[in-house]
Amino acid sequence: TDLTFWVLLLGLASLQVADCITTRIILDRGGHEQNPIAVILMEMLTVNGFLALKAIVVTVLGYFLGVGSLWLLTGVVVFYVWIVHHNMQSIK
Fold it and tell me: Is 3 exposed, middle or buried (CB count within 10 Å of its CB: 0-12, 13-18, 19+)?
């Protein structure tokens, strides 16, 4: 339904903010990005530039995936729940 779509999309956008914040904390504390493609893009765009761009791109892609299939959007949301959870565990 429309409400489910918008709740999932808002959740995905919120998870992007949480991912940006937790990633930044980890990096500021001496952690390292594990995704080699992200490392290259961070060097090209700066860390904050990359994180902001990634958040926007993932949310927009989530929108288009959700228009086609709520299951795909749900999968992306679950994936980012795992990422943010992993980041939170790394911060402890």
Answer: exposed
